[in-house]
Specification:
two-stranded antiparallel sheet, 8 helices, nine-stranded mixed β-sheet, 11 strands, alpha/beta, binds guanosine-5'-triphosphate
Length: 249
């Protein structure tokens, strides 16, 4: 099942939690505070599925090319002669209207001519920030976005991976809430929460083959991914770390 239905994250613990990876034909949202590792997860998933074709829509920062180059050399099948960016289509979009027209017009054209198995939106939050005072307009746009994406995901059997931020008012709480409200929340298929914990990795928490990482002066914080809502996955969480090689655990 895992090979056909799901796209690997390239991290064993995360794939175990996700029963093999992100499910095709659906929208998965990953939310968490700034710096928790959302982009790293999206980037590594893109790398591990590069050959299947990926669209990476950046709405905040430029596509992290340098980091992509850094983690690609850790692929077990890494070959310096291969162009790992060949099937990656990057878009930079800042406005909600542009995002909608990209998904309504440009993406269907691209998908008619190229194999794509993953679409990342990093993040969905940013383009809708300027609409944050016009809640009706924002709810309508988010609804259209979700309908368009659900239809693309199903028609082309691809994974849609949306990154979302958290609401500021709950930042100190253990129960941070994803941004964009209920209108959006009800339309994603699965929702996962990513956290940078206050736990620092040590010889007990890290597998033996990663103990060499502990010699660095920088503390390595343990990250945690939890299923908040996922129809086909149990409520559970798993731990991993982010190193120069990418997400490991
Ligand atoms: P926002 O975009 O601000 O919402 O954050 P994010 O959740 O997308 O965080 P991101 O994926 O950018 O992760 C940032 C964290 O990943 C940093 O705090 C680092 O701990 C880790 N990280 C990023 N690049 C590297 C790297 O090259 N080496 C190591 N060791 N860690 C890295």
């Amino acid at each position: 099942e895992s090979e056909v239905l799901r796209l690997s994250t390239g991290c064993k613990n995360l794939d175990n939690l996700l029963n093999g990876g992100f499910r095709r034909g659906t929208i998965t949202e990953v939310f968490g505070e700034s710096g928790c590792g959302k982009t790293q997860l999206a980037l590594q998933t893109t790398l591990y599925n590069w050959l299947q074709g990926c669209v990476y829509i950046c709405t905040e920062d430029l596509f992290p090319t340098k980091r992509y180059e850094e983690i690609k050399i850790n692929l077990s099948s890494y070959d310096p002669k291969v162009d790992y960016g060949k099937h990656i289509f990057v878009e930079h979009i800042t406005e909600a209207n542009d995002l909608l027209s990209c998904i309504r017009v440009r993406l269907p054209r691209l998908l008619d001519h190229h194999k794509v198995s993953l679409i990342v939106i990093d993040s969905v939050t940013a383009p809708f920030r300027c609409e944050s005072t016009n809640y009706i307009r924002r709810a309508e746009d988010l609804r259209e976005l979700a309908i368009l994406m659900t239809s693309l995901a199903q028609k082309h059997n691809l994974v849609i991976f949306c990154i979302n931020q958290v609401t500021a008012s709950f930042k100190d709480s253990d129960n941070v809430l994803p941004s964009l409200g209920l209108a959006w929340s009800n339309m994603v298929t699965a929702r996962l929460m990513l956290k940078k914990t206050l736990k620092i990795a040590d010889v007990v928490s890290l597998p033996k083959q990663m103990h060499h990482l502990l010699t660095s002066n920088q503390p390595i914080y343990i990250r945690e991914l939890s299923t908040v809502f996922a129809p086909d996955l149990p409520d559970a969480s798993t731990e991993f770390v982010i190193t120069s090689k990418g997400l490991q655990g």
